[in-house]
Amino acid sequence: xTTIRExxxxxxxxxxxxxxxxxxxxxxxxxxxxxxxxxxxxxxxDNLERYTQEIRTVLSGAAKREWQxxxxxxxxxxxxxxxxxxxxxxxxxxxxxAKLKEKNT
Length: 105
What we know:
Layout: H1 4-18, H2 25-61, H3 72-82, H4 86-104
Helix pairs in contact: 1-2, 3-4
C-alpha cells in the first residue's frame, strides 16, 4: 500500500515532468516544501522517540539506594527544635521517619 508521503512524492515527480508543458512551478514548489517539512517533522519525532527510549533505559537501570534512615543527630536535633516533651518528640520523629521510609522504598 502506498503511503501519503510516497503518493505526494509521486505527484511531485509528475508535476516536475509536466512543468515543461504547463505552468505548475508554484505547485511544484509548494509540494516540495510540504515534503521537506514532513521530513523534518518525521526526523524530530524519530529523535524524540529515540531519546525517550534512552531515558527509559537509563531510569529503569538505575539502582535504588537502600534507605538510610535518620541519624541519632537528626533525632536529637528534631527533639531540641520541636520544643515538645522529649518522649513525644522522639515518638513523632520515629513516626516521621517511618513515613519517609514508606514513601522512599
